[in-house]
Structures are given as C-alpha cells and as structure tokens.
Amino acid sequence: MWLARLHSSARSQQTEAGFRRWIAADATHRAAFERMNYVWEATATLRPARSLESALSRSVRRVFHRNMAALAATLAICALLSIGALYLARFEPATTGDSFTTTFGQRRVLRLSDGSRLVLNTDSRLSVAFNSKERQVTLDRGQARFEVASDPARPFVVRVAARQIVATGTAFDVRWTDDRLCIVLVEGHVAILPAAVPVAMPLISPVTLDAGERLEIRGPAVAVKSAARLDREEAWTTGHVIFDSTPLRAAIAEMNRYARRRLELADPALGDLLISGTFSVDDSRYFARAVANVFSLEVTASEAGIVLGRPANKYSVQ
C-alpha cells in the first residue's frame, strides 16, 4: 500500500514516481490517500496532514518502528473495503439542467452523467446541458477543473466569456475572474473558439493548446500563450496556493478569493514586497503571520479583517 511504502525506510525516487503516477490516474485515488494519511497521522499522535502536498514534502521519517508500517498497510486494506462509499461521499451527481454554485472558500466535486468529473472552486457558478450531439457546460464565473470522459462522437464544450473550449477526452482548468480568462491544459488537447462559431464546422482556425500550456485572454484582442507551472495552477484543487516571488498585493488578492475575513495592507507600498511559499487557502491568519515574520511587520486582526502593517517604531521594510 502506498502509505506504507512512503513511510518505509526503503522509500526511493522510483517509489515517489510510482506514487505520483497512481495519484494522477484517478481523482478518487487522491481522496483515498487523504483519508488514510489522516488516520496515519492520528495514530502517530501527530497533527493531521492538511494536504497531499504536505505529506509529500515532509522529510522521510526513518525512525518509525516496523509495526507502524504494518499498521498503515492494515488501515489501507480497511480503506479499500469502504472505498466505494468514500467515492459516493466525495462526488455529487450532476445531470442536464443542473446549476451549481460555491460560496467563498467552498470547493465542490461533481460527477457528470457521462462520467466526467469536475472540481468547482470558490465563489463560482456553472450549469450543465447535455444532448445527443454535444456535452455543454457554461461557466458563469469563477474556476473549475475538468476531467473529461472520452467520447469522440460528443465533444465536451465549456462556454465562458464569449469563448468555447472544445475537448473530447482531456483534463484542463478554466478560470474566469476579473475580466481575465485563463485556460490551463493538464493533459490531452483542446481548441478555443469564439462562442458564435459552430463547433462541428468552424469557419476559422481555432487556438489550440497542448498539455502543459496556458492561455490567458484579456479583452477581445489580447491572448498570450505560455508554458504552465502545473504545480501552481493545480494547487487550489487541494486547498492551497503557491507563490514564487509574487508581489504581496497579488498574493493577498489571491488569498482574498477564499477568505471571509479579508487581508489588507496598512500601507500600499508594502504590496511591492515579494513572497514565496505554499499556503492553505483556509488559513489567512497563518499566511499573515508568516508574511509578518519574514518582513518584520505587525498583524492586527479583528472580526472585520486582518491588516498587515509596519510596526509603530519602524519606518521602512527591508
């Protein structure tokens, strides 16, 4: 079982590579691992891991006794016996005519009638409309990750922001916020067309994406294609954000997508500071404390929000 292998003293790069392939093969594998990792941590009297990434990033524990590895294997077997129930609990069925929304900080996992799966991110809304010729989903706002079941006879079409993204069997991420449309292709191929162009017989050549590519569209005329950092783009599906020399104002804007207690800067000039790291989208207070520790700032928290500012006896931040 993967949990026992990862905690074994024989863990190797080959073990980790195999584990990542297993996780990528099916979204339900991730859910099963999360459940078992929680149990492992609880039995070891450690704080439960909050994510798959945190479990992978910790240094290998080589001081566990052999009976702990045996316990992990036993627990994994027990999990497999109830894995069907776990899948049903994790996924909501979605049929034609259904609409789905999420509130701030909420994420929902949906299973469509064709076998496709999608994850709906914070403050998002979409609707489903399937027929015999086309599988159509309309994203009104927010962000969703699609894992499309293959069906060459019925293209899967995501309509968003006067565009339509066409796929038959692939995985991709769509974000429509602040008049900015971002499409990230995880695997397979997609084509992007104007909304008015027929999917079956397009009159113009579509923009296409290959796996690992990202397309950002601003307004009717600006479209930029680039290589995607999939770890950053997909971190939200496990409840995290990854910043890499990101201006603090942009990092706060991203955290505020999820938080009801909004983060603010007492001095706008602090927004130029660069922040790096992986943070839980559910813990704005921890993010604020981490930033404050790095840049010697003060945190003022209230029911209204969390404010980052310079200490009273400081006039600049290095």
Write a concise synopsis of the structure shown:
The protein is α+β, with helices and mostly antiparallel strands and 318 residues long. The chain has helices at residues 2-6, 13-25, 27-43, 52-57, 66-81, 83-90, 230-234, 248-255, 284-295, and strands spanning 92-94, 99-101, 108-112, 117-120, 125-130, 135-147, 156-160, 163-167, 171-177, 180-187, 189-194, 207-210, 213-218, 222-227, 240-247, 262-265, 274-280, 298-301, 305-309. A hairpin with a 4-residue loop joins strand 5 (125-130) and strand 6 (135-147).
Write the layout of secondary structure elements.
Blueprint: H1 2-6, H2 13-25, H3 27-43, H4 52-57, H5 66-81, H6 83-90, E1 92-94, E2 99-101, E3 108-112, E4 117-120, E5 125-130, E6 135-147, E7 156-160, E8 163-167, E9 171-177, E10 180-187, E11 189-194, E12 207-210, E13 213-218, E14 222-227, H7 230-234, E15 240-247, H8 248-255, E16 262-265, E17 274-280, H9 284-295, E18 298-301, E19 305-309
Parallel strand pairs: 1-3, 6-7, 16-19
Antiparallel strand pairs: 2-5, 3-4, 4-6, 5-6, 6-9, 7-8, 8-11, 9-10, 10-13, 11-12, 13-14, 15-17, 18-19
Question: How would you describe the overall organization of this protein?
Answer:
With 318 residues, the chain is α+β, with helices and mostly antiparallel strands. The chain has 3 domains: 2-88, no CATH class; 91-232, Jelly Rolls (Sandwich); 239-309, Phage tail protein beta-alpha-beta fold, CATH 3.55.50.30. 28% of the residues lie in helices and 34% in strands. It has 9 helices and 19 strands. Strands 1, 2, 3, 4, 5, 6, 7, 8, 9, 10, 11, 12, 13 and 14 form a 14-stranded mixed β-sheet that branches. A 3-stranded mixed β-sheet has the order 16-19-18. A two-stranded antiparallel ribbon has the order 15-17. A hairpin with a 2-residue loop joins β7 (156-160) and β8 (163-167). The radius of gyration is 22 Å and the shape is globular. The model is unreliable at 38-71 and 73-89 (pLDDT under 50).
